[in-house]
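Me: I keep going back and forth on a fold encoding question. No explanation is needed for now; the record alone will do.

Assistant:
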Amino acid sequence: MTLYSFRNLLLLRFAVLLLALAPGLYVGLNAAPAGAQARALVHYQKNMQYSLSGEDERRLAGDILARAPDTITLQEVNRENRQILEFLKPAYPAQKLCRFKDIGGVAVLSRWPLVAGSKRCLKGRGIAALQVEMPEGKVWVMSVHLETPQLPLHGQMVRSLGAELPGFRGPKIVGGDFNAFPGSESVSVLARAAGVAPLGPKVVTKRLGGLFALTIDHVLVTGGKGRVEQLPLIGSDHYGLLARFTLDF
């Protein structure tokens, strides 16, 4: 291991320790005080790419920890890059990884306490979900990865998930690679079914051949108040998204 890598590893472990202590600041709080201003939440969305290198995996973990989001959604998690879940586990102990045929690994994480028995891999495929207890109340967090729209599976997933999502009650944070543009039928159907709205502005999340700029990764929340910003590629073919928003509880 080089001195540079060793230093990065030490910084990563220090960041994990600090972030792991953060929820303790809210011990004893069950809800926000009446009349208090809504607390801003932060969400990190990333399609990692199956071929992400070990070095980029550590860089991505470091970037996530430095930004200290409340919740995280990851796609294209496989045997080669899933160690990132272990890197993040001390600070983000609430985790669910679902492995879907034809879609691959989809993961959701949070630093807030897990609601017992809430972890789900949706039958319609492509969504991993869990519910956490935030100071303001319980929140569902969902990670989405849809098939590309030119394949029949995309439409099948949208129809199945659209029928399944209304069964999840309460506020939601939904992030993922929808392989669909803002305002498309696929995004709209799932947004209505989950009772969420996309955050703007529209930002480029993937480029094809350096020519075509696509917005196919999205963050949607209950209430839809907030905004997203583009994050670096960090070894992936998708840009990350960082969302800052308030939820309707």
Q: What stands out?
A: The chain has a mean pLDDT of 91. The helical segments are 3-21, 54-67, 83-88, 152-164, 185-194. The domain at 42-246 is CATH 3.60.10.10 (Deoxyribonuclease I; Chain A). The chain has one domain: 42-246.
